[in-house]
Amino acid sequence: MTLITHERYGFTKTGIFLYFGNRILKLYPLYIGSILFTIVLITYLPSNFYEKYHPTMFLPGSLLGWLSNLSIIFGLGFKGFEITSRLTPPAWALTVELFFYLAIGLGVSRTKRITVIWFGMSILYHIIVVSASLSWWWKYFSFLGASLPFSTGAMLYHYRDSVTRLGFYFSTRTGLITLSFFFALNWWVAMQIDWRGAPFYINFAIFSCALMGCMARGGNKKTKRLDTRLGDLSYPLYLIHYQAGLATIFVSSMLGLDLQRPSLELLAITLPVSLLLAFSLSVLIDRPIERLRCRLRPQPVTESNSSKL
């Protein structure tokens, strides 16, 4: 987001307006499609299936509940996500995402100095959370907890020249093997002990290094094309995978199979279903909307203009 605000939209009134308009068109149409699919499932499936499957997957019982689901605003970053009806269960993260899209559009990562302050405050927040032994909610689900990955992304953009040089090692075969080894080791350690969430932060550092490696390596036309296609599926897949799992469990039960969540069997059967549904959402909703988004997408900010930011 920091990259596109600097190099595509800029920080003029028109640029900010187009940026917000494009973000809304990217998030909301696909999201509405996902909650409509949930409503169909809830309407036609026995209640014992979806109530047991996920505690937040039920029709809202109030006007506020419907407004929350339609606006993707759940809890305003405070505790309450877990007791709110969410027709698309992981939509709580979209509330956090919208908040930081707004903050970045308004300039929280506009300059290196502001970004460094933001990044430093994010680190300080997590130090306090860990020192005070606060719950996982404060590390992961809250706005303040999510500030660390967003500010890290902004830092990677502003210091991309240094990051590219530093990330060269991680773009090599040896670097990839090293990262994979530490990822597996960290996963194994996390299964044994989770000292104050240390594996979470180690995992974050590993993937930050992997991202630096990607920035250093760049890519050719084939890999960029593949990356674009996978990227087109990532958001609809995120929105629809819970519904795909629910539908898979129901159909499997009709065939005499008892699938449980979570399980590797459910993952194996649900994955192709999720991909098919995600592709369908992409083709039916995202691609037509993309034409409108292209109209709102300005030409890249020129170097002379960017120097004024």
Q: Would you write up a description of this structure?
A:
This protein is an all-alpha fold. Helices cover 74% and strands 0% of the residues. The chain is built from 14 helices and no strands. It is globular, with a radius of gyration of 21 Å. Mean pLDDT is 87; it is low at 302-309.
Spell out the blueprint of helices and strands.
Layout lengths: L1 H8 L3 H32 L2 H7 L9 H9 L20 H14 L6 H20 L4 H5 L2 H16 L1 H8 L5 H20 L5 H20 L3 H34 L9 H33 L6 H4 L3
Helix pairs in contact: 2-5, 2-12, 2-13, 6-8, 9-11, 10-11, 12-13
Task: Summarize it.
With 309 residues, the chain is mainly α.
**Major β-sheet annotation:** none
Query: SSE order, as H and E?
Result: HHHHHHHHHHHHHH
Quaternary state of this entry equals: single chain
Report the average pLDDT across residues. Answer: 87
Q: Which runs of at least 5 residues are low in confidence (pLDDT < 50)?
A: 302-309
Quick one: how many beta strands? Answer: 0
Shape: globular
